[in-house]
């Protein structure tokens, strides 16, 4: 009987270390050592903690061992602020200790002598619930967008596991009971692992989607630069001939013809397609790409840019917000018949970053509850997927986005408060 209890204890203790590793990974994300080395440290932590428990059989000494081991791992393995390194081990070890004590006293109400292995298992399942909640809160982004139902199921699994363990008959065969508890623990580990694999797959899908967008934008920017260089070389090659012509016209006092000739030279030198020259490579490449595409299809475009060269927003988020909204506007223009118009305002004034896009639209977009834009089935994979990322990027900076529909025009406004210093 004691051997069975010890086996359950050791297995459950390993499960607890696994949960601690996952929770610390969520709260302190930046590793400064390899993942394999980090896992090795946690395994050493598992061995030390169990040795301390079996040698002294004292909860307080075990708790102190927990604190010391966690602090050593955190300070060796993670690159975070010092206050985080101090707070996180204290928080997790205290939660673990208090949870075990809570279940111990609760089970004493129903059972005079609670099974210590059952108390430890129930405590870890409660840790599973906390882990699922932490993943839902801290890993906002892909997980929130595409795994909402899975997040709910992830929380339900440890809750169900707790009831199953509690429902086990105390008179059940010890070997059978140990096998059942081991199976439940293994099931929780496998489900958490599969969940992470699924989240990782969605993150890769997002990265590929954004990468394809940026490649298109940078290819267009590169083409614009090549065209500009080619025209400048052409002008330089013929500069002597142009000087001779202008001198001759000047000697003949043909001022009007000189003006016409210089205007022709100016038109050749100008790169009409380079709409944006803010100095921000990310903004310029996106604006130039989609403005060029809109003008090619015959749209009347109006562009107002009032932004500094450097923005207090990550380039990735600028690409997501500006790129997706302009892509949707251009796609809408393609379906328009007759007059096509595109108005873009991107400005930074009084600490507020504002993006306003107005485009003609052939038919009304579908609105859900008057707030959220729903895309058509042909647009759903790219555009619906992209709009979700736009909302997430704007929310990251506590911004707001709203849609307006008026006659044949669709308008989207995005605001991000950056503070008066910007």
> If helices are DSSP runs of H or I spanning 4 or more residues, what is the number of helices?
13
Counted beta strands: 7
Please, what is the average pLDDT? 77
Name the strands of the widest sheet in spatial order. 1-2-3-7-6
**What general form does the structure show?**
elongated
Q: What's the order of the H and E elements?
A: HHHHHHHHHHHEHEEEEHEE
Which percent range describes the beta-strand content? 5-15%
Low-confidence stretches: 140-147, 366-372, 374-384
Radius of gyration: 32 Å
Helix content: 55-70%
Query: What's the story with the biggest beta sheet?
Result: 5 strands, mixed
Which class of secondary structure composition applies to the elements? alpha+beta
Amino- and carboxy-terminal Cα gap: 69 Å
Main features:
422 residues, alpha+beta, 5-stranded mixed β-sheet, two-stranded antiparallel ribbon, 7 strands, 11% strand
Task: Lay out the secondary structure.
Blueprint: H1 2-27, H2 35-56, H3 59-77, H4 82-110, H5 116-138, H6 142-146, H7 148-167, H8 174-237, H9 239-251, H10 255-269, H11 281-296, E1 300-306, H12 315-334, E2 341-349, E3 352-360, E4 366-368, E5 372-374, H13 380-396, E6 400-406, E7 409-417
Parallel strand pairs: 1-2
Antiparallel strand pairs: 2-3, 3-7, 4-5, 6-7
Summarize, please:
The protein has 422 residues and is α+β, with helices and mostly antiparallel strands.
Would you mind describing this structure in some detail?
The protein has helices at residues 2-27, 35-56, 59-77, 82-110, 116-138, 142-146, 148-167, 174-237, 239-251, 255-269, 281-296, 315-334, 380-396, and strands at residues 300-306, 341-349, 352-360, 366-368, 372-374, 400-406, 409-417. The protein is built from 13 helices and seven strands. Strand 1 (300-306), helix 12 and strand 2 form a beta-alpha-beta unit. Helix 8 packs across helix 11 (281-296). The protein is an alpha+beta fold and 422 residues long. The protein is elongated and about 115 Å long. The strands form two sheets. It has a five-stranded mixed beta sheet with strand order 1-2-3-7-6, with helices on one face. Helices cover 68% and strands 11% of the residues.
